[in-house]
């Protein structure tokens, strides 16, 4: 009995030594911000399902920007974003329309599937048509979004030297192949595309065709996290966590072996970048660090990426915190 207890205590001690951050310095650098949809109109996440028209439940607007527009992306960068996330659909006329929704019914005056609508028609729509914060009494953005749905080409031309995380909304491998072809042919696109994610088929097709490109989908994210939880304590790194983006929900981060500094050092050694989300719940991998309370989830010395839906708030708050931290070091 005493021998078994001693072996157990020794095992626990070894696991602790392998995973404590006490003797590990965090990787060099400072935290970076990833602005989901640019600067956009937010809404309460409670009871939001896959088919909920979120434009009809926005909070009272505090700024004039609509998601996935060039103006909203510029505003996000101005607020401190290092990367902006945007959504794409490959249209019948072979353009990548930058728009979140699978259909047009919620945000515009039109109906139909976004990827089935030619870009020439999408350009005529009012993308601010459906927004309301008071149950339909007023529509503060109606008439202001006409012609504001950009193509990916227009975004990259308007915002050179910026970086974008591209979200495939479909499951069409064709989209990934088309994006890979364009990125491969244009050096400025390769510099601009920070990574890809979303639909498994287009994401994996892009990664297959573009050496060195990073990306993830739900399956690869769960494979990385579950396998790391299973045996990451040993220092062994799952292949699913190598040379990729490792998505970490803030409320589960403390469960990861070696969090924060040893975990970060392991991921850096594996060629991966950490993207820290807000509290995970309900299967949503787009919850962000969106409040001052959420920002407390970001550990001191963190040098990965922080996903946020409120860049206008978190950008200045993080900058202020980083100045304060620099003053104490």
From TrEMBL:
* UniProt EC number: 3.1.4.-
Q: Name one GO molecular function term.
A: hydrolase activity
| GP-PDE domain boundaries | 31-318
Does Hydrolase appear among the keywords? yes
Entry's transmembrane regions: none
Please give the name of this protein: Glycerophosphodiester phosphodiesterase family protein
CDD domains, alphabetically?
GDPD_GDE4_like_1 (cd08613)
Among the Pfam families in the record, one is: GDPD
Q: According to the UniProt record, what class of enzyme is this?
A: hydrolase
Q: What's in the keyword line of the UniProt record?
A: Hydrolase
Q: What are the leading ranks of the lineage?
A: Bacteria, Pseudomonadati, Pseudomonadota, Alphaproteobacteria, Hyphomicrobiales
